[in-house]
């Protein structure tokens, strides 16, 4: 939930069993940030085989930042 220090979201990733290839599973989350706000993302997984990629898009859908776990 939202706190004065930030926002916490707990969710499951890679949880779509209907995909032929689970590695193609994509999850989207939307947030509002003001100019100068900092965004920190922490992804924890019980499986060390998860290869996470984070892409940050602006309000118009343009990619503004990209990061990988490796």
* Percentage beta strand: 15-25%
Order of helices and strands: EEEE
Annotation field: number of helices? 0
Q: Enumerate the strands of the largest sheet in spatial order, edge to edge or round the barrel.
A: 1-2
Name the average pLDDT.
Answer: 76
Low-confidence stretches at least 5 residues in length (pLDDT < 50)? none
Q: Rg from C-alpha positions?
A: 14 Å
Estimated helix fraction: under 10%
Q: What kind of sheet is the major sheet?
A: 2 strands, antiparallel
> For the terminal residues, how far apart are their CA atoms?
28 Å
User: Which secondary-structure class do the elements indicate?
Assistant: mainly beta
Overall number of strands: 4
Tell me, what's the shape?
A: globular
Task: Write up what this structure looks like.
With 70 residues, this protein is mainly β. It is built from no helices and four strands. The chain has strands spanning 2-3, 6-7, 53-57, 63-68. Strands 1-2 form a two-stranded antiparallel ribbon. It has a two-stranded antiparallel sheet with strand order 3-4.
Helix-strand layout with pairing:
Blueprint: E1 2-3, E2 6-7, E3 53-57, E4 63-68
Antiparallel strand pairs: 1-2, 3-4
Keywords:
0% helix, 70 residues, mainly beta, two-stranded antiparallel sheet, 4 strands
Summarize the structure.
With 70 residues, the protein is mainly beta. The chain has strands at 2-3, 6-7, 53-57, 63-68.
């Amino acid at each position: 939930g939202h706190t004065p220090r930030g926002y916490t979201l707990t969710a499951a990733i890679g949880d779509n069993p209907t995909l032929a290839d689970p590695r193609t599973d994509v999850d989207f989350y939307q947030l509002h940030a003001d100019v100068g706000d900092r965004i920190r993302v922490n992804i924890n997984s019980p499986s060390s085989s998860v290869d996470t990629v984070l892409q940050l898009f602006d309000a118009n859908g343009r990619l503004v930042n990209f990061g990988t776990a490796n």
